[in-house]
Write a structure and sequence with these properties.
Elements: H1 10-21, H2 24-68, H3 75-80, H4 85-118, H5 125-135, H6 139-157, H7 160-186, H8 192-201, H9 211-224, H10 231-236, H11 245-273, H12 277-280, H13 287-297, H14 300-337, H15 341-361, H16 363-392, H17 394-403, H18 408-442
Helix pairs in contact: 1-7, 1-11, 1-14, 2-8, 2-9, 2-11, 2-16, 2-17, 2-18, 4-6, 4-14, 4-15, 4-16, 5-13, 6-7, 6-14, 6-15, 7-11, 7-14, 8-11, 9-16, 9-18, 11-13, 13-14, 14-15, 15-16, 16-17, 16-18
The structure holds phenylalanine (PHE).
C-alpha cells in the first residue's frame, strides 16, 4: 500500500481547512442571508451557533478523519462497522450536490470579474439586471461552470501537498489582505454606518423566533464552516497525531467568521451608499451580482478597481472551497476502489459537471438544490456527527484528544457540549429549518 499523503505543515492544514470554509458562502451567502431581514438577531444566532454548537462538531469531524486516516466514505465504517456505511454515503452525496451548483456560482463570479476588468460596470440597476440575466442563462453559464471545474480539478489532481496545500497557502492570505483593504475603503463611504446598522446591528427581538431567521443562521453556520459533510474528515485524514485539534478548529472557525463579518462590512455600506436597499431586500441568489456592480458603477475608476478586486477575491475564495468539495469524492474513490488520483479526479469532475447542468439552466432549481444540499442536509450531517462521536464511539473522541495532549478542561468542555448541547440544539434547528423550507416552497 502507498503511504497516505500528509500536510507539509500545521499552517498548511489550517489554511486549507480555512480555505474550504471561506468561500462564496461568506462573501455572497452571508450578505444574502443577512439581508433577508434578520438583522442583529441573525448575526447573534449565527455566531452563537458557531461557537456553542459547531465547534465541538468540527472537532469531532476532524477526530473522525484523523482517527481512521480514511476518506469520508470509509471513515464511519472503519470507526463503527458496516452498519454505518450509509453515513459514509451521505458524506459523499452532500458535497457532490453542493459541488454541482457551486461551480455555477463560480461561473457567475468569473464572468462578473472579467466583465469588470475588460468592459465597464453597469450604469444602473436595469443594466445590471440585463447583465446578470446574460451571465446566468444560456451557454455562458455552462462555459463558466466548466472552466471553474477544470481549474478545481487541476489543483486537486496535483495532490494534497502540491495542489490543495499550495493553493490555500497563497490564496487565503491574499484573500484576507484584500478583504481588509476593501473593508477599510468601504468604511469611508457615506452610507457606511447606515449599512452596518440596517443589515447587521438592527435588533428586533421577534426575529429570534422567526423560523426563517433561525434557518438562515443554522444554514449559514454549517455551510460557511463546510461542516457536516465529510470535508473535514477528508482533510484531517492527512494529519499527523501531534496536532491539537481543538486549537485547529478554533483557528478555522475564527478565520471563517471574521471573513463573513468583513464581507458584510464591504457589501452593506456599498448597498446603502448607493441607494440599493430596495434591490437587496427580499434578495435572491443573484442579488450580489446585481447590486454590487451597480453601486460601484457610479464611482468611475475607483469603483471598477474595487469591483475587480472584490470579484477576484471571491473567485479565489471559491476555488479554495471547491477543491475541498472535489477532494471528498476523489479521496473516497481512491480509498474504496484503489483508483489513482487522476482517474478519481476525472470521474468526479465529470459527474459534477453533469449534475450541475440543471442548476446552470434554472435559477429556481439552483435555489432549491442549495436549500436542500447546502442547508438541511448539512445540518443533518452535523447532527449525525455529534451523535456518532458523542454517543456511538465516544472513546475515539477521548483517546484522540488525550493522545495529542489537548488541555483537560477543554476536552471536558467539548465532550459535554458534543453529547448534551449540540444534538438537541441541532435537532431543533433541523426541524425548524425543514418546516420553514417546506413553507417557503408552498407559499
Ligand atoms: N464553506 C464554503 C463557503 O462558505 C462552501 C462549502 C460548503 C464548501 C460546504 C464545502 C462544503 O463557500
Amino acid at each position: 500500500m502507498e503511504m497516505r499523503e500528509q500536510w507539509r505543515s500545521r499552517w498548511g492544514f489550517v489554511l486549507a481547512a480555512a480555505g474550504s470554509a471561506v468561500g462564496l458562502g461568506n462573501l455572497w451567502g452571508f450578505a444574502y442571508r443577512a439581508s433577508e431581514g434578520g438583522g442583529a438577531a441573525f448575526l447573534l444566532l449565527y455566531i452563537l451557533i458557531v461557537l456553542v454548537v459547531c465547534l465541538p462538531v468540527l472537532v469531532s469531524e476532524m477526530v473522525l478523519g484523523r482517527g481512521t486516516s480514511s476518506s469520508a466514505l470509509v471513515a464511519p465504517v472503519k470507526a463503527a462497522g458496516s452498519k454505518w456505511s450509509w453515513m459514509g454515503w451521505l458524506f459523499v452525496i452532500a458535497p457532490l450536490g453542493i459541488g454541482s451548483y457551486y461551480a455555477v456560482l463560480m461561473g457567475w463570479t468569473l464572468d462578473t470579474f472579467l466583465h469588470s476588468l475588460f468592459f465597464a460596470l453597469p450604469a444602473n440597476t436595469a443594466e445590471a439586471e440585463t447583465f446578470f440575466g446574460s451571465i446566468s442563462t444560456g451557454s455562458s453559464v455552462l462555459l463558466g461552470q466548466l472552466i471553474s471545474l477544470l481549474l478545481t480539478a487541476s489543483v486537486v489532481s496535483a495532490g494534497v501537498r502540491g495542489g490543495i496545500e499550495r493553493m490555500s497557502k497563497w490564496g487565503v492570505p491574499i484573500l484576507f489582505t484584500l478583504l481588509i483593504v476593501l473593508a477599510l475603503w468601504a468604511a469611508t463611504l457615506t452610507g457606511t454606518w447606515e449599512g452596518y446598522r440596517t443589515f447587521l446591528f438592527k435588533i428586533d427581538i421577534s426575529e429570534f423566533f422567526n423560523p426563517s431567521t433561525i434557518r438562515n443562521a443554522f444554514t449559514q453556520a454549517f455551510f460557511s464552516l463546510s461542516l457536516g459533510i465529510g470535508i473535514m474528515i477528508a482533510y484531517s485524514s492527512y494529519l499527523d497525531r501531534k496536532k491539537q485539534l481543538p486549537k485547529e478548529a478554533l483557528a478555522v472557525a475564527s478565520i471563517d467568521t471574521a471573513v463573513g463579518l468583513l464581507a458584510g462590512m464591504i457589501t452593506f455600506p456599498i448597498v446603502m451608499s448607493f441607494g440599493l436597499k430596495e434591490v437587496i431586500t427580499g434578495s435572491t441568489v443573484g442579488t450580489l451580482f446585481i447590486s454590487l456592480p451597480t453601486g460601484l458603477g457610479t464611482l468611475g475608476l475607483t469603483g471598477r478597481i474595487v469591483a475587480v478586486l472584490f470579484f477576484a477575491l471571491a473567485y479565489i475564495a471559491a476555488i479554495t472551497s471547491s477543491i475541498s468539495l472535489l477532494e471528498v469524492p476523489v479521496s473516497s474513490l481512491m480509498d474504496k476502489f484503489a483508483w489513482s488520483r487522476s482517474k478519481a479526479v476525472f470521474v468526479s469532475t465529470s459527474l459534477l459537471f453533469i449534475l450541475g447542468i440543471p442548476s446552470a439552466l434554472s435559477l429556481d432549481f439552483l435555489g432549491k438544490v442549495d436549500s436542500i444540499f447546502g442547508g438541511v442536509l448539512l445540518i443533518f450531517g452535523g447532527f449525525m456527527l455529534a451523535i456518532f462521536l458523542g454517543w456511538v464511539v465516544p472513546r475515539k473522541f477521548d483517546e484522540d484528544l488525550a493522545s495529542s495532549n489537548s488541555n483537560l478542561s477543554v476536552r471536558r468542555y467539548l465532550k459535554f457540549m458534543l453529547r448534551w448541547v449540540s444534538p438537541p440544539v441541532i435537532a431543533f434547528g433541523l426541524i425548524v429549518s425543514v418546516i420553514d423550507l417546506f413553507q417557503s416552497w408552498s407559499s
